[in-house]
Design goal:
Layout lengths: L19 H4 L10 H52 L8 H9 L7 E2 L16 H8 L7 E6 L8 H10 L5 E7 L9 H6 L6 E8 L2 H10 L12 E6 L10 E2 L10 E3 L11 E2 L8 E5 L2 H10 L5 E5 L14 E2 L5 E5 L7 E2 L5 E5 L5 H8 L5 E6 L3 H7 L8 E5 L11 H12 L23 E6 L11 H9 L5 E6 L13 H14 L2 E5 L1 H10 L2
Parallel strand pairs: 1-2, 2-3, 3-4, 4-5, 5-7, 6-8, 7-9, 9-10, 10-12, 11-13, 12-14, 14-15, 15-16, 16-17, 17-18, 18-19
Helix pairs in contact: 3-4, 9-10, 12-13
Protein name: F-box domain-containing protein
Organism: Roridomyces roridus
């Protein structure tokens, strides 16, 4: 043992010596003689005494150790404080801080619960330079997301007033979200924003019911003819039992900069309020209306670039079969539960996403003579319609098809439908890329991204087509393949792969070095969304 202060070795024995005769007793059950027993007792007494000495020294060393640990912690804390002084954040120029703050997504700037945890309030508390930069950046304060979680409302009007003060003369982006009709009883919020309608740049409103929407629209009548900067309007209904809104509201007819109008959420699962709109200005539109009204909107919107439409009726007889609407600038179209695309001509269309298009997919592509690069079919298209539509898509680079129950015709199973669809995409050795040889023409010759969705646990699918899938993919120059589950996951069905499909995927990875993945239902939705 060594000294804990100077490190010198101790000359004293740390442990009392063990009698030589006692050592043989450690490995046997022999009864000790009186002399051995006396020696053992002397050893126990001496050792216990020495343990007491050691305990005292341990306490001394423990106190020294605690002191050293405390000193080390104190020094570590001081080091951290000095490193903060040298932090690069402190040396960021104010103009760069303003640039960083300007990139904050508007949707993250919320006034509601836990308001001080949201930008710009939180960023203004980092340090003095950040606070000064935040206060000197009016655009940082110009986005408002006011969330009403119930009544009484949970946002403090004083914070809105403060934030409005810091916006200076910047255009305002405003989002209101209601969860309950009762929140509309509080008018203090609108009393702050309505006088500034001449500075509104974008307005997004989510209403919980038709009654709330009608009351709000009446209140918004004061902004008519006084929204010179308004560029984007989103007005959504979230009624649990939706019915069409009656009437047409004249709020936006004199909005000289309005170009983006979204009257339903991205799922197109509710009805749209009908506004009088300068349709000739609109470039981006999303709405759900009857077929005749929908076609009238498209006819009045010659400058549409992106459009997402749905229908709240299936009365196609209201539309004359020979009626056609040209949309010469349309680049992207999504049609949900809407069979009127056969009445649309869009020669510049590049991205088409359809849900329940049959039997209008082929006529639409034929009439439009467009060079589609992306086609997403989520429901309702028959194999026959796809078989005649896909040969027209010579520039198609991305194709995604979801096959679900009810997708095939009554005389074929879902499994056979998938198998036949794979056969359609197979490139044989005699195929030709020339459109003049239709019998053996390569369908979608430049296809690079392919997605196929199906209910992985459907009783109609036995996966006997995995070899066909392998050969079809092998015959093409695909860069990306995504196979994904369709529908809501049940227990582990969404993650367990059938053996045949798993082996096919692994084989394609090994032999083709292909980027191929199986996606769960949620990942499949995200994949389709990533296509535009």
């Amino acid at each position: 043992m060594s000294c804990h202060q100077c490190g010198a070795s101790s000359t004293a024995s740390s442990i009392p010596p063990v009698p030589s005769m006692a050592r043989c007793l450690f490995t046997s059950n022999i009864c000790p003689v009186d002399s051995d027993a006396a020696a053992a007792k002397r050893f126990i007494a001496a050792a216990e005494s020495f343990i007491g000495v050691l305990d005292c020294r341990i306490e001394i060393l423990r106190a020294v150790l605690d002191q050293l640990v405390a000193e080390r912690g104190h020094l570590s804390s001081r080091i951290a404080q000095h490193r903060v002084i040298l932090s690069p954040v402190r040396r960021i120029p104010p103009e760069l801080i303003c640039e960083i703050l300007a990139w904050i997504p508007p949707q993250s700037r919320k006034i509601g619960r836990h308001v001080v945890e949201q930008p710009p309030w939180q960023l203004a508390h980092i340090c003095r330079s950040w606070r000064q930069a935040a206060l000197a950046c009016p655009s940082l304060w110009s986005s408002f997301s006011v969330l009403h979680h119930g009544y009484p409302v949970s946002f403090p009007p004083e914070m809105i007033e403060t934030q409005l003060f810091h916006t200076g003369s910047q255009p305002l982006d405003i989002y209101f979200g209601w969860k309950h009709d009762g929140a509309l009883q509080d008018t203090s919020c609108w009393d702050l924003f309505l006088p500034l309608c001449h500075r509104w740049r974008s307005l997004r409103i989510e209403c919980p019911s038709n009654r709330a929407a009608e009351a709000l629209i009446e209140r918004l009548r004061v902004v008519q003819d006084n929204v010179p900067l308004l560029e984007r309007v989103e007005f959504f209904l979230d009624d649990e039992d939706p019915v069409p809104l009656d009437g047409q509201w004249d709020l936006l007819s004199n909005a000289p900069r309005l170009s983006q109008l979204f009257l339903v959420d991205v799922a197109l699962n509710s009805y749209s309020p009908d506004f009088t709109v300068p349709w000739s200005q609109i470039t981006h539109y999303r709405g759900v209306f009857p077929h005749a009204r929908q076609l009238d909107i498209l006819r009045r919107s010659p400058n549409l670039v992106q459009c997402s439409i749905g229908s709240d009726d299936e009365d196609v007889t209201a539309v004359h079969p020979d009626m056609m609407v040209q949309s010469l600038h349309l680049r992207q179209l999504h049609a949900e539960h809407c069979s009127i695309i056969g009445h649309i001509i869009a020669p510049a269309l590049q991205h088409l996403s359809v849900n329940n298009p049959s039997p209008t997919l082929h006529p639409f592509i034929h009439h439009s003579s467009c060079s589609l690069t992306t086609l997403v079919v989520t429901k309702g298209c028959t194999l026959e319609d796809l078989s005649v539509a896909l040969p027209l898509c010579l520039a198609l680079e991305r194709l995604v098809v979801k096959m679900i129950r009810g997708f095939p015709s009554a005389d074929t199973t879902l499994n056979n439908h998938i198998s036949s669809f794979i056969d359609t995409l197979q490139i044989s050795s005699t195929s030709s890329p020339s459109p003049g040889t239709e019998a053996n023409m390569i369908i979608c010759p430049v296809l690079a991204i392919f997605g196929l969705g199906f209910p992985i646990r459907s009783s109609q699918i036995n996966f006997d087509w995995t070899d066909k899938l392998f050969r079809m993919i092998q015959s093409r120059s695909l860069s990306t393949v995504r196979l994904f589950n369709v529908g809501l996951p049940r227990k582990m069905d969404d993650v367990r792969l059938p053996q045949a499909l798993g082996e096919c995927i692994q084989r394609l990875r090994d032999e083709q070095s292909l980027d191929i993945e199986y996606l769960t239902a949620g990942e499949g939705v995200a994949f389709m969304g990533s296509l535009g």
